[in-house]
Amino acid sequence: MTSQSNQSNQSDRIIIFDTTLRDGEQCPGATLNVDEKLSIARQLARLGVDVIEAGFAFASPGDFEAVEKIAATVGTADGPVICSLARAIKADIEAAAKALKPAVKGRIHTFISTSDIHLEYQLKKTRKEVLQIAQEMVAYAKSFMDDVEFSPMDAVRTDPEYLYEVLEAAINAGATTVNIPDTVGYTTPNEFGALIKGIAENVPNIDRAIISVHGHNDLGLAVANFLEAVKNGARQLECTINGIGERAGNAALEELVMALHVRRQYFNPFLGRPVDSDASLTNIDTKQIYKTSRLVSNLTGMLVQPNKAIVGANAFAHESGIHQDGVLKNKLTYEIMDAQSIGLHDNQIVLGKHSGRNAFRTRLKDLGFELGDNELNHAFLRFKDFADKKKEITDWDLEAIVNDEIQQAPELFKLELVQVSCGSNAQPTATVTVRVPSGEELMDAAIGTGPVDAIYKAINRVVQVPNELIEFSVQSVTAGIDAIGEVTIRLRDPQGRIYSGHSANTDIVVASALAYINALNRLSAAMQKPGSQAREAIVAQV
Ligand code: KIV
Ligand code: ZN
Questions:
Q1: Residue 274 class from Cβ within 10 Å (0-12 exposed, 13-18 middle, 19+ buried)?
Q2: In 3D, which of 250, 256, 193 has the Cα closest to residue 220?
Q3: pTM of this prediction?
Q4: pLDDT (tens digit, 9 = 90+) per residue, 280-329?
Q5: Any long-range contacts for 230-233 (C-beta under 8 Å, 24+ apart)?
Q6: What is the β-pairing status of strands 106-113 and 148-153?
Q7: Least confident of 16-25, 213-222, 298-307, 521-530
Q8: Which end of the chain is flanked by fewer CB atoms within 10 Å, N or C?
Q9: How far apart are CA 269 and CA 226, in angstroms?
Q10: DSSP 142
Q11: Are 262 and 270 in contact (CB under 8 A)?
Q12: CB atoms closer than 10 angstroms to residue 529
């Protein structure tokens, strides 16, 4: 292998490749329906990501539809590149190409494992066979579109000499991006930096491709690994909102972007820029970060831990007296970034009970929500209902209302009534009426350890869908006694699959009941969907 240093792939900007809808969606319980994926994709476009990995088109008809819809609606000329994952198999590549057709800028991302352990136990193929497949399948993908990304899966545990050879062959076959995945989250920053440097120096045609990195957070090092990779030549970062993804998740987009933003003067020289250049290193509109984080959390049911960097509830909260004193005197004493830079304080009071449909629609449009007529009607009715109970409706309240509307799962079960009686020295009792798929309205009652337990027991008696509640949480959207409460729950079916449910309401008892019904609807819809087991089998290979 020749050793040569290539500079032409060293663009001075970092490409942000978002895989929330593909790798992020692979985490248990984060399953999204097509409309929810579309809402997230639209928000990712507003956030300014360069590439959206919209899904894995071959995995199921639902995945195909999501990639195709996102390609058609978000893949515009001035929008992001839309990408679909595909194993290095002809049928996968054909599905990806077909689903991406409506996108102005499409990308096929094809992958095959290259580490000896994967070759021996998973693929049962020799290095020579995998090398051959990689180049043939990249060439096949190239016959459909120019923009082709190739990933040697488990690259971190692949023999570097063999890795160089596979990458060289993939680039010769037409790959324009070569992605280096730390599939098992094993590497450390120095090692990963050295691996990227080795690739930049030892793959003779690397100047014809962008070096990308992808990594999982099993040791909590994904973001640190990526930043070291940037210093050594990586120019595309594959990441997810809130770091969601398989096991411990993927590298978190918001952490990468803000590290590159806050410390741009440190990173500038590695990108060939003057040290004191103030220009952004990414295309991201950082003010959209907080909103995107909340949307993804609400729709996936994956809560953000309070101490999570950048988007956690405590990320900008100063509790200690010394810190508070310092921040009041000069923010910079204890704050390295401004909460406004991630859009955290953009929470104006905008509407009230006299606001009309037009004002409602216009404000939603400003916030970036484009609802169909039906969704808008429902959301407006809910807004009026909220406005009766809550004097001032803020942007965040509006987002909660709309997210709830977007998140509606197929309405197999509908909550018609919920009533509870509880208090000190009282036995919590709930009565519910639920419309079941046959159209019948069934009523039942139950007692429980608390009002929510009683409601869930009563609902279970009516719906008769086996499930186990594994997580329940309530958060308030804004401060104040009349705040909207958001309930997120996760439940497990007898096969161990996890489903989330979400609802927002000024009455947290009602929100709890609706969130449970929402999750049960998702569970029941998934049970009815043909091919859902097949999708899991395919996705399990990635
Ligand atoms: O983690 C991984 O290796 C992947 C590849 C498909 C890029 O997700
Ligand atoms: Zn991955």
A1: exposed
A2: 250
A3: 0.87
A4: 999 999 999 998 998 899 889 898 988 999 999 888 876 677 777 777 77
A5: 230/14, 230/260, 230/267, 230/270, 230/271, 231/193, 231/267, 231/270, 232/193, 232/194, 232/196, 232/197, 232/200, 233/9, 233/10, 233/196, 233/197, 233/199, 233/200
A6: parallel
A7: 521-530
A8: N
A9: 16
A10: H
A11: no
A12: 14
C-alpha span between 284 and 262 (Å, rounded): 13
Measured from the Cα of 155, ligand 1's closest atom is 3
Question: Rounded to an integer, what distance in angstroms lies between the CA atom of residue 434 and that of residue 413?
Answer: 7
Q: Is 542 in the pocket of ligand 1 (CB under 6 A)?
A: yes
CB 389: neighbour CB atoms within 10 A?
12
Q: Point out the ligand nearest to the CA of residue 182.
A: 1
Q: What pairing do the DSSP bridges indicate for beta strands 429-435 and 441-447? A: antiparallel
Q: Pick the atom of ligand 1 nearest to 246's CA.
A: 1
Name, in order, each residue with C-beta under 8 angstroms of 200's C-beta and a sequence gap of 6 or more: 5, 6, 9, 206, 211, 232, 233
**Helix (H) or strand (E) run with residue 267 in it:** helix 264-267
Task: Please give the radius of gyration of the chain, using alpha carbons only, rounded to the nearest integer.
Answer: 25
Report CA(495)–ligand 1 centroid distance (Å).
25
Distance between CA atoms of residues 517 and 500, nearest Å = 10
Which DSSP string corresponds to 351-372?
A: E-TT--HHHHHHHHHHTT----
219 and 179 Cβ atoms separated by less than 8 Å = no
Which residue's C-alpha comes closest to atom 5 of ligand 1? 153
Q: Which ligand is nearest to the CA of 85?
A: 1
Unique residue bearing structure tokens 């009516």 = 462
Ligand 2 centroid to Cα of residue 183, in Å, is 6
Amino acid type, 331: K
142 or 541, which is more confident: 142
| Token pair for 89 | 């198999």
CA–CA dist 293, 272 (Å, integer): 31
Indicate the SS3 state at residue 132.
Answer: helix
Whose alpha carbon is nearest atom 3 of ligand 1? 183
State which of 107, 153, 213 you would mutate to test the pocket of ligand 1, scoring each by most atoms of that ligand within 8 A of its C-beta.
153
Separation of alpha carbons 21 and 10, rounded Å: 28
- If we measure between CA atoms, which residue out of 126, 179, 169 comes closest to residue 149? 179
Ligand 1 contacts CB of residue 181 (under 6 A)? yes
The whole-angstrom separation of Cα 93 and Cα 444 is 51
Q: What is the CB-side half-sphere exposure of residue 121 using CA atoms within 13 A?
A: 4
Question: How far is residue 504's CA from residue 285's CA, in Å, rounded to a whole number?
Answer: 27
DSSP assigned state of 21: T
AA identity, residue 505: N
Asked if residue 256 has pLDDT above 50, the reply is: yes
Which carries the bigger pLDDT value, residue 493 or residue 169? 169
- DSSP assignment of 198-232, as one string? HHHHH-TTGGGSEEEEEEB-TTS-HHHHHHHHHHT
Instruction: Residue 282: name the closest of 252, 259, 316 by CA.
Output: 259
Q: Which two tokens stand for residue 148?
A: 């082709």
If one residue of 58, 110, 214 were mutated to test the ligand 1 pocket, choosing by the most ligand atoms within 8 A of its CB, it would be 214
Question: Which residues fall within 8 angstroms of residue 331, CB to CB, at 6 or more apart?
Answer: 338
